[in-house]
Design goal:
The protein is mainly β. The protein is built from two helices and eleven strands. The N and C termini lie far apart (56 Å).
Length: 194
């Protein structure tokens, strides 16, 4: 019974936080920008790990599928290493800068483990995100978020705040661990394809 109460509490807390992850200050970006200057690939090296975040295009047409992926590669001395993480080591939160809307990325938080083989990247594609609070959020934000949740991105400029969040056990069989939270940014635009 305690377990069910804990799960329900976490669920209601998560739903309540959906509304807290936005800024409804409408801001229109009318300045033209150079698509070539958008950062579509990022690579961050932290100790024995390489984290890559990629959007396959700098500009997508309205309602075109958005192709984003993350990779984590182990480059250390061992042949393989076990990492521990939530449902995934990767998260893909975003900000749509023309409206100044935050697009949260939510996932379940079980403790899972994955073995990384040296030189073989673990890769995961973006599969969607977003959420809203129907009772508290503005109508414009709800409509925007419904489109995002259907993976129909409205026109705008998007910055992806990617994170690889995991830990490694320092001593096998012991609870001592080293936490990693490797961050990278990529961006893309969505334009009307007419």
């Amino acid at each position: 019974m305690k377990k069910i109460s804990l799960i329900l509490s976490f669920l209601f807390l998560s739903i309540g936080l959906f509304g807290c992850q936005q800024n409804n200050n409408e801001k229109v970006d009318n300045e033209p920008s150079d698509i070539q200057s958008l950062e579509t690939k990022a690579e961050v090296i932290e100790e024995d790990f390489v984290y890559r975040l990629v959007t396959e295009k700098a500009e997508y047409g309205k309602n075109e599928p958005i192709k984003i992926y993350a990779e984590l590669e182990y480059t250390g001395d061992k042949e393989e290493i076990e990492i521990f993480h939530s449902a995934s080591p990767f998260s893909f939160s975003m900000v749509e800068t023309t409206r100044n809307y935050e697009i949260g990325y939510f996932m379940e938080e079980p403790l899972l483990s994955t073995k990384l083989i040296k030189g073989e990247p673990l890769r995961e594609e973006y599969r969607g995100s977003g959420g809203y609070d129907a009772a508290q959020d503005k109508k414009e934000y709800i409509e925007f978020m419904k489109q995002i949740m259907n993976q129909e991105f409205p026109e705008g400029h998007y910055v992806v705040n990617g994170i690889a969040d995991f830990d490694v056990r320092v001593i096998e069989g012991m609870e001592q661990k080293k936490d990693y939270k490797i961050k990278a940014l990529v961006e893309f635009k969505v334009k009307n394809s007419n």
